[in-house]
Amino acid sequence: MESFVFDHVRGVGSDSAYVALYSPVANASAIRKRIMDASKMEGEEGERERDAINFAFIDATLITSRLHLQTAIHQAILAESQNSLRTKTVHSEILFALNPTNNITEAIRRYGVSDSSRALLVVHIGPGHRSSLSETENKMKKAVEGVLKPLGELEELTDWQRIKKYHRLNTADDEDHASVNDFVISAVAMKTVMQ
User: Vertex 150, ends 57 and 112: CA angle to 5°?
Assistant: First the structure.
């Protein structure tokens, strides 16, 4: 697991992102069902269950690079710090930032965990404390049945054809991954400006 600190929002509460890459993942459909069930639960039981899965579960095959992921996380943290979330949580805001359109449901369907997900990035936004790191890591291990991989292996999992399809990059050269990466990073960074 790695952590990223966003100094420009330090002291606001959510200034760090904890990220883990799991591939392969054996329980994607169970995670998806758990998220859906937790959203409907009430009372203390619902609060405990939502806390246990308080992550962004991202289909890792749709992330082109570490910078692509960091840009989406940055945009979500910035939106939260400015009280301008367009989704219910900072974690769903990451999925929204990754999607090229403004359709929240589509963003969750495309970039979130699905029954067929085999590789997941699990992200938790929170305060940057040492205790938070170990607690978050334990929660991730309890939620995901998969092999923890170094984040450096992310680009080996990328499904460039699906990314080009979602971003309507039909003319891009199949081997020109650097240009596609640059485009999707720019799209995430500019999304709030273009609205």
Answer: 15
